[in-house]
Specification:
The protein has about 350 residues and is of the alpha+beta class. The protein has 2 domains: about 160 residues, START domain (Alpha-D-Glucose-1,6-Bisphosphate, Chain A, domain 4); about 150 residues, Multidrug-efflux Transporter 1 Regulator Bmrr, Chain A. The chain contains 7 helices and 15 strands. Helix 2 crosses helix 3. The chain is elongated. This is Activator of Hsp90 ATPase homologue 1/2-like C-terminal domain-containing protein.
Length: about 350
């Protein structure tokens, strides 16, 4: 009995020392700020923060879990919008609200975690540094914690900063694809031959051989596009803003052949683990291209390809493959909207 009493006294002393150290040396709440810069205009950046459906697509807190369920409440954008979330596997839940909005300047979030009645308050300010660059500043105020729980404040800032670092990588990928698509749509001039320098791309897709009789090739392309799209969105969980327009790679003059071999892929920002052997990655190296935007029947693209080849021959340029970038998703019995690119070199 005496031994048990001694142990109990030691435990009480340690708990008392812990409580005193927490009380005198650890703040009951924390205030800190984090700054980041992104190479995109403020209006593009702000719309990823004030629309919570956009926000949860790139914020690492939500994307890092495969088991989290999120409910969105109207209005879905701006002041008054809200979400609730639950992750039974990781034993967490909470609610998040936008309490204040000053368009393209400031947002205030209120986050209630795990039934805590005291919220974390986060003010986010957006400062345009140029027409294409924005500074984002987070001002974070954590809820007050009881003496016994204050030890959490030792890692709160580091955890928050780590989440922002990972989120910024996701955000840049989302904005990169979105801005690229917007710019591409704005720059379209149909049936005009132009020169373009294309950066490298990483495609995830499928290798195919198909008949070139009548509409058989296009039907095959539509079918395989749906396979790749469903794999990327459903199996890999990617959202439309996280990848680029689908690209079909093929030999420049195989439109004459009875059978056509091609690679159809969707651009991704980085390689990820793929267990399905039907799909593979292919890298497109930086090239100079002769390009032409085309809208019409799929069979009608041949005339545009011939124009690109004739231009290359006239300029005494050698040429490689043809890339068919579908600006609108290919669908049966509908015209295509695409960019045709012929890689050229001396």
């Amino acid at each position: 009995m005496r031994f048990i009493k001694i142990i109990a006294v030691i435990i009480l002393v340690l708990m008392g020392a812990y409580a005193l150290s927490m009380y005198y040396f650890v703040d009951e709440s924390k205030n800190f700020q984090i700054e980041k810069e992104v190479d995109y205009p403020v209006d593009k950046v702000f719309s990823q923060f004030n629309n919570l459906q956009n926000f949860t697509r790139w914020n690492n807190f939500f994307t890092s879990s495969q088991s989290i369920d999120i409910d969105y409440y109207t209005p879905y954008e701006g002041k008054g919008s809200a979400i609730s979330y639950m992750d039974q596997k990781n034993d967490m839940d909470g609610e998040m609200f936008i309490r204040y909005e000053n368009l393209n300047k400031t947002l205030r979030y209120q986050l209630f975690e795990n039934k805590n009645e005291n919220p974390t308050l986060v003010d986010v300010k957006f400062k345009p540094l140029s027409a294409t660059k924005t500074k984002i500043i987070w001002y974070v105020h954590t809820p007050k914690l009881s003496v016994l729980k204050r030890v959490k404040n030792f890692w709160t800032e580091d955890r928050f900063a780590d989440n922002i670092d990972k989120s910024m990588v996701n955000l840049k990928n989302v904005l990169g694809n979105k801005v690229e698509k917007d710019n591409q749509m704005a720059s379209i001039k149909y049936d005009s031959l132009m020169v373009e320098n294309e950066e490298d791309k990483l495609l995830l897709g499928i290798n195919v051989s198909a008949s070139n009789k009548k509409d058989a090739l296009y039907k095959n392309i539509v079918m395989n596009y749906n396979k790749v799209y469903n794999f990327v969105t459903m199996d890999l969980g990617k959202k439309d803003d996280e990848f680029g327009y689908p690209v079909l790679l093929t030999d420049a003059d195989n439109y004459k052949d009875k059978e056509v071999s091609y690679f159809l892929g969707i651009p991704l920002s980085k390689k990820i683990g793929v267990t399905d052997n039907n799909f593979s990655f292919r890298t497109i190296n930086p090239t100079q291209n002769y390009i032409m935007y085309y809208k019409g029947t799929y069979a009608g693209r041949v005339k545009a390809i011939q124009q690109l080849i004739q231009k290359a021959k006239k300029d005494e340029m050698r040429y490689g493959d043809v890339r068919q970038t579908f600006i609108e998703r290919p669908m049966e019995e509908q015209d295509v909207n695409m960019k045709l690119s012929l890689s050229v070199y001396k």
